[in-house]
Each structure stands twice: as C-alpha cells, then as structure tokens.
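Progress report, Aim 2. The chain analyzed during this reporting quarter is listed below.
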Amino acid sequence: MRVLITGARGQLAQQLAQCVPHWADARFVGRAELDLSDSRACAEAVESWKPDWLINAGAYTAVDQAESDQAVASAVNAGAPQAFAQALDRCGGRLLQVSTDFVFDGAQGCPYQPDQPLSPLGIYGATKADGEARVADALPVDRFCILRTSWVYGPVGRNFMRTMLNLHAERDQLKVVADQVGCPTATVGLSQACWRALERQQSGILHWSDAGAASWYDFAVAIGELAQMSGLIASAAAVVPIPASSYPTPARRPSYSLLECTGTRAALDLPAVHWRERLKQVIRSMVQL
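Predicted structure tokens for the chain:
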C-alpha cells in the first residue's frame, strides 16, 4: 500500500515514521518538499505519486496566531485537504484527514459524538471544520476518514508536555488553567490508530484520544510528578490552578472537549489506555533517549 504522509517534521508524522507497518510503502513530505498553503502543489504531489492513502498529518496548529493569520490558516487547514481530496478523487486514492476537538464549542458536559454538529469558537477550529467539510464534499464517503483527536503531545516537537517539562525544571511555581477539560493524547497511540484505520480501510468520522479526562492543571501536575519519579527532572514545581479568565488568550478555547471514542476503539480493535499511563510511557521513552 502506497501511503503519502504530510507534516514529516511534526510530532505525529515522526511517530508514524517509527511504526510503519510491513504492508505500507510510506513516503513522508515536510514543508521543504510540500507547502501546504499551495493548493496546486498539494494536487501535484498526489498526481505525481498516486498514493493508495494519504495521511494529512500536517496542519496550521498555532491556535492564537491563527486569529490574526486567517488566510494562511485557512489555506493550510482547509485548502490543502480540499486539494488532496480532489486529486485523490481523480487518482483513486483515499484520505485520512487528522482533525481536532476544537471543532466543538465545549458547551455540553458530556463527550462529543462523531456525528454531532460542529461549532468552533476560533479561527483554528473553524478552518479545521472547513477542511472536514471540503473533504466530505470532494470524496465519496467510503474513500475518506476524518480522525478527530485532542491535546496531542509526544517526545518531539512543540507541545504542552515538553513546555511543562522545561518550566518544571526552571521554576518553583507554575500557574495552569484548571477549568478547561479534555483528554491528553500521546502520539504513540494516535499513530497506531492511524495505521489501523488504513489497514482496515476505515471510512467516515472517527474520534480518538487516550482514555479518561483531565484539565490542563491535572496534566501539568502529572507531568511534573512522573518526570521527577523517572529522573527526567530533579524536582517538580508547585502547580497552582487558575481559571481561564486569569490567562486571557487571543483565541477562545472550549471549556470541555472530551471526545466519545468507544466506537472508534471497537472499529479499530485497539484498547483504551488511560492518559496518565500513556504519559508515563512517553516520559520513560524520553529518559532512554
């Protein structure tokens, strides 16, 4: 199976590269090889290599910066998926579009189902929702899979966990938002879900995160505790919970964005692993580096 994967230098693609299945002939392209803001280049990449599947792991993920950079965010998060989908429609391939919990507004108090209406709060979420819609318009439902996930982190790249590790090592006290709830998702499990979706020719909309729930405060506390226990840092900082109102940002974020993943785990035959257990695995892997 020929698989083209975008975002080669991003945290998800780097994890995907570490666990390429024996049945996949994978080609990874990063920004240097493919500018996702260039729709024509996106289409030409598909037409040139003619993949059986394309995993679009590349995205514009600077949530706050997107508020003042809407044109580029839209080109990358909506224009590129549309160009990929249209080219794949002509070439006969399939698309796995990685999306986000930020397509929801967080107004409800129970996990979001895959078929619920979207209501993004900011430009980032809106452009990702637009990308989903354009994919669905361009391809038959049996030839695309939209995989929404949340709070993604891993041992490489820019993410909350790596930022917190640095801050725990540098400071005595951290203030972290405690009234936004979701679920951290390690790239190791997310990459397994992506490859399994391709192997099983999955279609439609899937939700994937690790199991359980957490606030950013809970996540920050666990990062410090587990990193100290593993010897990755000498000591953890004291973490003080604060409301989101005390840490204003350009982009509004959902206060609750848990994704209902039961159906996806059954469809992919993958176990539910609690986010804290996944975090422990990631930190251990970093100690071994």
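The chain has a mean pLDDT of 96. The first helix runs from residue 11 to 18. These observations will guide the mutagenesis work planned for the next reporting period.
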